[in-house]
Each structure stands twice: as structure tokens, then as C-alpha cells.
Amino acid sequence: MKKLDVAVLGATGMVGQRFIKLLENHPWFRVAEVIGSDRSAGRRYGDAVRWVLDEDAPSEVLDLEVKPLDADFNSMLVFSALPKEAAMPREMELAEAGHIVCTNASAYRMTEDVPILLPEVNGDQLALVDEQRKKRGWSGALVANSNCTSVPGVMTLAPLRQFGITKVLITSQQALSGAGHPGVPSLDAMDNVIPYVPGEEEKVEAETLKMLGRYDGGAILHHDAVVSATCTRVPVIDGHMVSISVQLDHDPGMDGIIEAWTNFRGVDPISSLPSAPAQPVIYRSQPDRPQTRRDRMAGNGMSTTAGRLRRCPILTYKYVALSHNTIRGAAGCSILNAEYMAVMGYIAEFQPAVGAAI
Question: Which of 102, 122, 184, 330 suits 116 as a labelling partner, its CA being 20 to 30 A distant?
């Protein structure tokens, strides 16, 4: 099978670099175009990028010329790691021109006809792309992934929808990499916890209910619950941890919750996609887990780890959950979204069979 050429917007930034690295040796996709700022455009990618990931940059990408954001792109599939301000005009233009845009940007997440796709949780919401194309008259598509802080909460709450979620209280401990690079100044971050992350609380409260909602004949009906979030920044490099209290209409007992997490997979064929983890939610029974350094790379960074499940004296239960913010919470989820779109026939003339090899 011939690989599909893809473009990465914002390729020199931290999330852009994560896209580049995760797409190295991908069985279906090949990075063919890298797009950067005016400062980087026209330069060799290896010269333009200040590589900040621990792993080396893929050699096959280093010699690509960085294109400007307003260039014409040959790749049908586009991954966006653009900041919101740049994403606002360009992502819509690309989708209107027939490109499939899988974005990590926040610009259009709450737009009515744009799904915030977390495939195991809300794979049925991909059908909203049909409405998007009908409404806008284009052959392209725009699909978002969520705010990185929303991921550990939504991944662990989704298996509990069957018990009737009515109230959720979320407090985050977010990694420094969530602010990009260079991010938070060292004298602000070291020996400190910052109890404010601009815009995060509103995103978590709104996006959670959209992702936990259901697709109903052309629209997403948001989950009927109340979510309250407090977001903080802590001095770890990668991995967003959240402490959650949840009120349930029906009490399944602690064993019932753990069983729901352990058996959670999402609809077929999601679990068989190249980037999908074998187990989306992993429960750790040790009293001091999950821990950011030890658990953020579970499932190659695509699994969410839950732990410390116990009764809540105010709501029903409380627990801790952890996801890797730049993998599952950013680039890795966008790539999984694109894989799902491909097998479901949303990328014209490219529909690999699940398990397809080169």
C-alpha cells in the first residue's frame, strides 16, 4: 500500500515536532510538507527547527523546505499544530479547498458542525462531517481534537456514562509543556504551583460535555451534566494529571467502575487502528498511582491511567487520572482521528484496511 502524503502546519513548534516524530515510520502516512512561520519559510526544516524533544528528529524530514502558511499544499491530509490566531482563517480555507484538516487548535472546537473527536469516546460523532460537508458545500473536512486537559477526564468519565453522570468536579495539575516552548519562565515554574492557566477552565467545562454527548441525526446533543474545573500548572515536563469527583445516578460499586474502565474499548474498528492503545484506560491499584513520570507513557503515551478510586463524601466517587498532554492530548489524538477517518472512507481514494501493511 502506498503511503498517503501529509502536511504538518506549525511544524517547528513543540506539538508540530510531536507530529513529525509520531509520523516517523507510520504505516499509512508520510510527512511530505512542513509549514512554518514567515521566519522559518524557505529554510531547510533541519535548520529552521529548534528541536526540543528527547528523541532525534527523523532524518527524512530534515531536508524538506519549510513552506509558508499561505502556500498551496499538495497533501490532501493536513495536521494542524497552529496557534488559535493563525488557525482561525487558514484551517477553514484548507477544508473549503478539499483538504482533510485534523487540528489540535482550539479555534473551531465548539463550532456546531465540527466534532471534537476522541475516537474511543465519541466515534459516532465523526458522522457530523457529513453534515459539515452538506452545510458548507465542500469535499474537505475539519475535525478537532480536544484541549489536552480535557482528555484524562473525558477518557475516564466516558465508561461511566452508563451509570448516569450528573456532576463532575475537576482539578488539574498540568505539565509545563502544555504552554508550548519556551513556555513558562523558569523562575515562575520552579519550586511553584501556578493556580491559573488562561482559558483552560472554560475549555474543560464546555468540551467535556460536547465529547460526552451523543450524535443525534445531524447534531451533537451535549451531555446533560454540570462540570466545574480548576486548572493549575505544576513543575513537571509532560503529563496532565486531574483529580475528579463525580456524582452518579446509579452506584455500580468500586468494582463496577474498575470493570467499566478495564473493559472500555470504543466501537470497531478503533481499537485496531495503528495509533490506538491496546487498553485506552488502565487502572492502577497501588495507593500512590498514577504518577506523572512513571505512567505518562502508558500505551506509548496514548492510554489514560486512573487510580486512587474511593468514595467521595460529597459526590459519589473520586479518583485521579493522567494522560500524556502532547501525545494523547495533542498530536497522537489527531493522528488517531485521521486513521479513523481513513478507514471510515472520509479521505477520498484512501481507505486502508485495518491492519494494512506497506
Answer: 184
User: In the block, which residue shows the cell 502536511?
Assistant: 7
Q: Are residues 317 and 199 in the same domain?
A: yes
* Residue 13 structural domain: 4-147+331-343
* Residues 173 and 318 both lie in one domain: yes
Number of alpha helices (DSSP H) and beta strands (DSSP E) in the chain: 12, 14
Q: Residue 59 maps to which CATH number?
A: 3.40.50.720
Burial class of residue 271, CB neighbours in 10 A (0-12, 13-18, 19+): middle
Q: What is the pLDDT of residue 350?
A: 93
Residue 99 sits in the same domain as residue 178 = no
What residues have CB less than 8 Å from 292, skipping those under 6 apart?
175, 236, 238, 239, 241, 322
CA distance 127 to 215: 8
List, for the chain, all residue ranges whose pLDDT scores fall below the cut of 50: 357-358
CA Rg, the chain, in Å? 20
Residue 159 falls inside a structural domain: yes
Query: What burial class does residue 243 get, using C-beta atoms within 10 Å of its C-beta: 0-12 exposed, 13-18 middle, 19+ buried?
Result: middle
Indicate the pairing of strand 317-323 with strand 304-311: antiparallel
Tally of residues, the chain: 358
| DSSP summary character for residue 328 | I
Q: What sections of 265-331 are H helices per DSSP?
A: 292-295
Contact 327, 301 (CB under 8 A): yes
How far apart CA 66 and CA 51 sit, in angstroms, is: 15
* Whether residue 131 sits in one domain with residue 39: yes
Enumerate the active-site residues: 148, 240
CATH of the domain at 212: 3.30.360.10
How would you write 172-214 as a 3-class SS string? EEECHHHHCCCCCCHHHHCCCCECCCCCHHHHHHHHHHHHCCE
Which residues is 116 bridged to in the sheet? Answer: 144
- 70 with 164, same domain: the answer is no
Q: How far apart are CA 192 and CA 80, in angstroms?
A: 32
